[in-house]
Design a protein that fits this description.
Blueprint (H helix, E strand, L loop, with lengths): L6 H12 L8 H15 L8 H14 L6 E10 L2 E10 L13 H14 L8 H10 L22 H10 L4 E6 L7 E14 L2 E8 L4 E6 L3 E6 L12 H4 L14 E8 L1 H9 L7 E3 L2 H9 L7 E8 L2 H8 L5 E5 L1 H22 L1
Antiparallel strand pairs: 1-2, 3-4, 3-7, 4-5, 5-6, 8-10, 8-11, 9-10
Length: 356
């Protein structure tokens, strides 16, 4: 075991020896004991010298991240008619260990928040171990959370966990599902689940449904029941499934819909929101000569800025573009612009109807 590769092993051995109150170890004793144990682990080990152990102790005490309080003391040794003093070292606190340090308040807070995030996957087999860890570390409920996430509660909290495990184990599931359009009718679907996706405070599963194996997106809060179907062979997902969903806003993927180059104008009032929270990852500001051309063609648009995104048209995209009202106007393509205009017209008509 090369000397330059066994530092952590030496620290572990020294950690045990320095906390031992049944032996008084001098530096020579520690060097001998470390070499014995290194030799037991690797007979080819060349061992270490006392100077190495001195450096290790100094690292534990002042140079490394541990800052251990080391006690230096003497014990009398009698022999050959005379008494001499043996200089020894040990941890000042015999219960201390560099591998068992108490958690700081900050670490407890951080671990609590991490466990809170993992709690969204209620029902996973591993959650029992996490709960035991929480109890062992005495992370009580008195610690006020400092990170808050919006979420849409799922009535059946094990659905997310079941699908998570099914995807990992490449297992087909049978899902009883009620749509928003027809909630009184329950659909019985055999699904090859591929991907879990969260959007706008709602979780979805994306998978293929026989016999066409077309990709469907199902909201988990509409799942009535779920059951594994191990006797059905799992159909592997498309190799580009993750890339496909990079081309859309939200979760609705329309296979036949092309990727569009969408140009829109944003007012000065809404500009900051759009720049800091882009509608799509492809969000790019339009500047220079291209911006001058757009302003010449649209002189009624004062101030603001022009942007471009490349994505497929779907329900979520149209809803997002519409949500800014007249602070965001689509310039092209005309198909998307016309649909936004149609939505706005219907909205105006609905409000006018309220006056009558």
């Amino acid at each position: 075991m090369p000397v330059n590769k066994n530092a952590m092993t030496r620290y572990r051995i020294l950690d045990e020896l320095l906390s031992n109150r049944y032996h008084n170890y001098s530096l020579d004793d520690l060097t001998e004991e470390v070499n014995i144990r290194l030799g037991e682990m690797d007979p080819a080990s060349v061992g270490v010298v006392r100077r190495t152990i001195e450096k290790d102790i100094r690292y534990l005490e002042v140079e490394g991240p541990f800052m251990v309080e080391i006690e230096r003391y003497t014990v009398p040794l009698t022999g050959s008619g005379r008494t001499r003093l043996k200089h020894c070292v040990r941890y000042a606190d015999n219960s201390y260990s560099i591998f068992k340090q108490p958690m700081t308040i900050e670490e407890k807070h951080l671990l609590r928040e991490v466990m809170s995030l993992l709690g969204r996957f209620d029902g996973l087999p591993e959650m029992g171990s996490l709960e035991r860890l929480r109890r062992e570390l005495q992370i009580g409920e008195d610690i006020t959370p400092v990170v808050s996430f919006s979420k849409n509660p799922i009535e059946n909290t094990t659905v997310l966990a079941q699908l998570f495990m099914s995807i990992n184990h490449h297992q087909v599931v049978k899902i009883d599902y009620r749509t928003f359009v027809n909630p009184d009718k329950c659909l019985h679907l055999t699904v090859h689940p591929y991907l879990l996706k969260e959007f706008n405070r709602r979780w979805y599963v994306i998978g293929a449904v026989p016999p066409t194996m077309k990709l469907l997106t199902l909201a988990l809060d509409r799942v009535v029941d779920i059951e594994a179907v191990p006797e059905v062979d799992y159909h592997e997902p498309p190799a580009d499934i993750l890339e496909r969903y990079e081309d859309i806003v939200g979760v609705t993927y329309v296979e036949e819909s092309p990727v569009l180059d969408i140009v829109f104008w944003v007012s000065d009032q809404a500009r900051g929101y759009v720049e800091t929270k882009p509608i799509h990852e492809s969000h790019t500001p339009i500047r220079g000569e291209s911006e001058l051309v757009l302003r010449q063609r649209n002189p009624m648009l004062k101030g603001g800025a022009f942007y471009r995104i490349r994505c497929k048209e779907n329900y979520e995209l149209l809803r997002e573009l519409t949500s800014y009202g007249n602070d965001l106007l689509v310039i092209s393509p005309t198909g998307v612009r016309d649909k936004i205009e149609h939505r706005a017209t219907r909205l105006c008509d609905a409000y006018k109807a309220l006056r009558t």
